[in-house]
Amino acid sequence: MKIKANKRKFYRDGSALALIAVSLVILSILGVGLLTVAYGVRHQAITAKNEQAAILAAEAGYEQAIFWMSQQQDLLTVLQQKGTPSDTISFGDNSCDYTISFYSFIGSRPIYRVVSNGHSGTSDRTVDVLVVQAMEGWGSSHRVPSGPSSTVAWPFAGGEVIDIPIHINKHDDDPDGKDIYIIGSPDFRQSISMGESRYTAGGTDKYSGVMHLFDGGICFNQPDCKITDASAVQQKVDRFADTTDSNFKFTPAANAPVTRPNAATQLEFFVEDGVGKVRITNNCTVRGYRYEDNPGPKPTYDYKINNGIGDTYIKYNTYAYHLKPTGEPSVTVPIEDTYVTQSFGEVESEPGGQIFVNGNVIIGGDNSLHNNDQAIKGKITVVATGNIWIADSIKVDGDRDGAMPAANNPNTLGLVAQGVVKVVDPGMSDYSYVDDTPVEPEGFNYVPVARPDGATPHRRKLLRQTEVEAAITVGGGGWGAENVGNRKTISWLGYDELIIRGTITEALRGIVGTASPLWSGMVLNGYTKDYYLDKRLLQGILPGDFSMVGKYIPAPGGWRDY
């Protein structure tokens, strides 16, 4: 009996040992499993951290590439000359490398490609973005020259409609003052971007009293528009001249015996039998007009930049009238004859018209073919190394959506000047005449522009509602009107209106009209401004590449990361 009891005890002890062994095995398996899970979680965490660091490094490379692009005066020229820029940046254990290249054209608008690769540990991430140079509706300084080395702020006035995005470059003369000057309550309908900060150095909100005026919003500390960089403008002009057909490159001569002669080419745009055409008269002589010239009514003078030399300005001679040599023929050609394509390697832009004038340009005439308006049918850009004087209303042909050109309308005009672009006042001509007939120097003919004023042949005028449909780029001064101070004043007939449907980029603010704070900022002389953005111009419809914005943004659908 005793032996049997011991056997039972042995069996019980053996069962316990076996259970313990099995438990240890199970616990070991669980431990290994938990260690494996913990290792996997840690590994996933490290991988996720590396991937996050890699994508951040790739985005940092992209931002650095965009910053480098914004510093170039003319990116397309740089890429044509230097190939594909690249760089590598280290961030301790992480790094990135990026390249910048030309990709294609949207119409005539270049598209660029930025590829940035981020590296962290074993993780690599790539940001691959197609970008375009941003475009804006109206970019300028808010200053008007008041002397050879001085400027004054110029107001937006009550009663004006500004239905166009605006960018105003930073001006450092008064850090505690606003760079946008407002009298009354102008109607700002789209976004405003400012180069300056919203706040003074002491933290005071400079804009609190006018924020309610900006229906489209306002943002601050934005990159400057490069229209103030004379070298950047010159690079774009040089590239345009190089690609223009030699038959449409002109260097006019000023041979007429007048005071202060300016050489110019006259252009008249019209539609005949459904074909857009341009009449070109070269070697015109513009009589330069000065404030001091006439003992009678005196036109206001204006300034332009002094050949891009620092912050200095000179008076330029306004348009009085012009003559052409008796034997100088006018040549009429279809606008499509001026068409060329921009090319980069084997990639070409859509074709568009280009006319280059190494001198001044007059746009306008008195020809009945265009019903006393300039009519544009086709795509064309006119570039002048001097001034462009507008002596008619200018409208594009084709379908319209109300007052605006319709979205599917292919017709457009670009005006680029290294001087100024101004609407002239033909009625201020001081031309000598006898019995209402101009006295013409031997060998030259007086060339009337705009509409007869019912008196003498040379006392002509523009419409009270002058319209210009174009993308306007002014490298040597401002867009505006001449003879503002003596133009028609407020009356029972209402205001004179200068209507823009397009875009404006100007190195300085140009004067369009003068306002009085005593009349709620209403314009008393010159024109009121009614400016509207032609959204078609943002889609690359305009020939050439004259965007001067120092900002690059992703093209629609152009962002990928992987």
Rg on CA atoms, Å: 33 Å
Number of helices: 3
Strand-residue proportion: 35-45%
Q: Mind describing the biggest β-sheet?
A: 16 strands, mixed
Distance between the termini: 81 Å
What form results from the Cα inertia axes?
A: elongated
Q: Overall mean pLDDT score?
A: 83
Domain count: 2
* Helix-residue proportion: 10-25%
Q: Class by helix and strand content?
A: alpha/beta
Low-pLDDT stretches: 517-521
How many β-strand stretches? Answer: 46
Strand and helix map with partners:
Layout: H1 2-71, H2 75-82, E1 86-91, E2 94-106, E3 109-120, E4 123-133, E5 138-140, E6 143-147, E7 150-153, E8 155-157, E9 161-163, E10 166-168, E11 181-183, E12 187-188, E13 192-194, E14 218-219, H3 230-243, E15 249-250, E16 261-272, E17 275-289, E18 302-305, E19 313-316, E20 318-325, E21 330-334, E22 339-340, E23 343-344, E24 347-348, E25 352-357, E26 360-363, E27 374-376, E28 379-384, E29 388-390, E30 394-396, E31 400-401, E32 404-405, E33 412-417, E34 421-423, E35 433-434, E36 437-438, E37 444-447, E38 451-452, E39 460-461, E40 465-468, E41 471-474, E42 479-481, E43 496-506, E44 513-515, E45 523-533, E46 552-561
Parallel strand pairs: 5-10, 5-43, 8-11, 9-12, 9-45, 10-13, 13-14, 15-25, 16-26, 25-28, 26-29, 27-30, 28-33, 29-34, 33-41, 34-42, 40-43, 41-43, 43-45
Antiparallel strand pairs: 1-2, 2-3, 3-4, 4-46, 6-7, 16-17, 17-20, 17-21, 18-19, 20-37, 22-25, 23-24, 31-32, 35-36, 38-39, 44-45
